[in-house]
Structure formats: structure tokens, C-alpha cells
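TICKET #2291
ISSUE: user wants both folds in one file
ATTACHMENT 1:
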Amino acid sequence: MSRGRPPVPALVLAAGGGRRLGGRPKALIRYRGRPLVEHAVAVVRAGGCPDVTVVLGAEGDRVRATAHLPGCRLAANPDWAGGMGSSLRAGLAALAPEASAVLVMLVDTPGVTPAAVARLLAAHRAGAELAAAAYDGRRGHPVLIGARHFAEAAAGADGDAGARALLAAHAGEVVLVECADVAVPDDLDTPADLARWSAG
């Protein structure tokens, strides 16, 4: 990290209801013996983000009571059913004001690794204000958003789009960080996805 600059915080979006997974909140889906939200927090911390904000929505009280999230800032998104955009807005609003950027991680991408997180942070240290993990050249998650884009990101976060509008508006500025050799971008949405990830 740059001298005198605090570490980039991570924002874990974990508010989804898991409708196609039997209505269980995605944060509490078990993966490798623990809830997905614990796995996601461990990944971003191991990748270099010690400050983590977790956005909770579906069965938020149950997630708080069940998941072990020491040291995390927990942000409530009462509008979680409206899609990922509302979670991104809630998370950005909860960040410490001195953050130079934020690393946005989705709770349902268990194939993202600390190495992928570390590569995005390195891109920011090299000057990138917008960066995204890429898989064989195709943009995926996680993404990194510089502080000067926070307001625009929040304004454009609608429905399930998340940061898509921001990244599209600044496509020429987005640094794609190839991660196919260290991570897998697939999300976990259906029972078949869960079975495949659990088997892996």
C-alpha cells in the first residue's frame, strides 16, 4: 500500500434471499463447513482488505446471530429484495470517509480467491480508479471502485445492476485484471450450483 494511505476496505454484498436455493439467505449457505459469508470475509481479508463491511438483508437478524463475523462492520439493507443495487448503495454509505477505494465482493462467488483480491489491490496501488477481475478477457467479479466514483456508483446502482452502469459509463478507464489462472467467477444461484461447488 502507499505510505500513509489506509488499506482499501472490502464490501461484501450478502443480502440476497436465495430464492432459487429454497429461500435460504445466501449468506448462510454452507460452503466448506461454514456459511458463505464467513468464507467471503476470509477471502477478502487474506487478499489484503482488513476492514470489511458486510451488507445484510434477507433474515439479517438470523445471519447476525449465526455467522461469526468478528471485526466486520454490518450494514442493514431493508430494501434487499429490490436487488443488488440497493445493497451497493447501503454498503457505500457505510464506508469510512477516508477510504481511497473499495473492493466489492459478492457473497455467492466462492471461487474468487485471495490472489484475485490481491491483484485488484495491486492495480489500485498502480493508479487504477476502476478495476475488475477478468476471466479470459471477460469482466467479472470482484470489482474495485475508487472513492471519486462512489457517488456515481450509488446513483447508478439500480435493481440487480450493481456497479454495471458505472463500469459501462467509464469502460475506457476500467482496468481489467486477468484472474482466470487463480480464481473462478461462477456464482452460486441454484441447487445444481451448490451441489457442484460442494463436490469441488
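ATTACHMENT 2:
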Amino acid sequence: MTSSTTPGLARFNTSADGDARDTLHEVCASSAWGSRLLAQRPYATVEDLLGASDAAMAELTAEDLGEAMAGHPPIGRPKPGDPTSSREQSGMAGASEELKAEMLELNLAYQDRFGHVFLICATGRTGEQMRDAVKERIGHSPEQEREIVRAELGKINRIRLNRLVEEATA
């Protein structure tokens, strides 16, 4: 990854506030996170943008995290017609019907316990790795899990922001 200004970063820096806000909402559904990043434009480098994302993520309240998580579909059930969630969850695409059924059960149990979807940075993970992670994390305290979710959201945001600024065209 480059630390210089990319055409995608330049486009993001100069886009109208409403367009930039919409773009950021596609990265992360937290309006507080998006507002913090929007307020700091323009960014000199991609690293500056990623650092601002990390700092904004660290400041999110439990309510803000809930808003961010609401933008993510359950693992194994990407949003229909959403290439981003399908790409990020591709590790579940070839999973057996048994594993998909097990993930559905685990997702529901996790949601019952914590009140939100199981969130993990799924990029590059197999269905089995995601299953093992939810099995491990369901035993956490709500406080432990909130901080893990914060870290996982931060990873997802970084991947999505990198993809955004690497795009050569709008």
C-alpha cells in the first residue's frame, strides 16, 4: 500500500460533502465515524485517512458501535445484490450445507446473547475459521466482545477505505 495521494484519495478529498458522507456510510454505517472523517478532509495521504479512521473508531460509543454493526449482514447471509458483503464473506460461499446451518444457529445464539450480529473481519477467512471464532467469542463478557467488535470493525473499515482510495474511477 502506498502512503502517497492516490487518484481515489484526491477524488474523496474534493467530492461534495453529501457525496463523501454517502461514500463513508458505505464503508461504515456509524454516522459519528463518518462525521469525524468528513470533518478532517482533506487527507494528505492514505495513511492519514486510515489513522483518522482508527482514531474515530476508538472514540465510538456503544450506541455508535451498534449503528455501525447494523450495517453488516450476518456471516453466511450477505446482503442480496451487495458485492462488498459477498466479496468479504466469500469464505462462506463454498461452505457445506452443514456448516451454513451451524453458522446460522451460532449467529442466532450470538445475537441472543449480545443483541447484535456476530461481526468479524471475514476477508480471507474460511467458513470454518469464522465458525470457530463465533464459538470462542460467544463465551466473552459483553465488555470484552464490544472491544473485539470495535477492533474487527476497524479492520473492515481499513480494508474498505483502502479499496475506496485505490479505485481509479468514481
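RESOLUTION: both attachments delivered.
EXTRA DETAIL ON ATTACHMENT 2: The mean pLDDT is 88.
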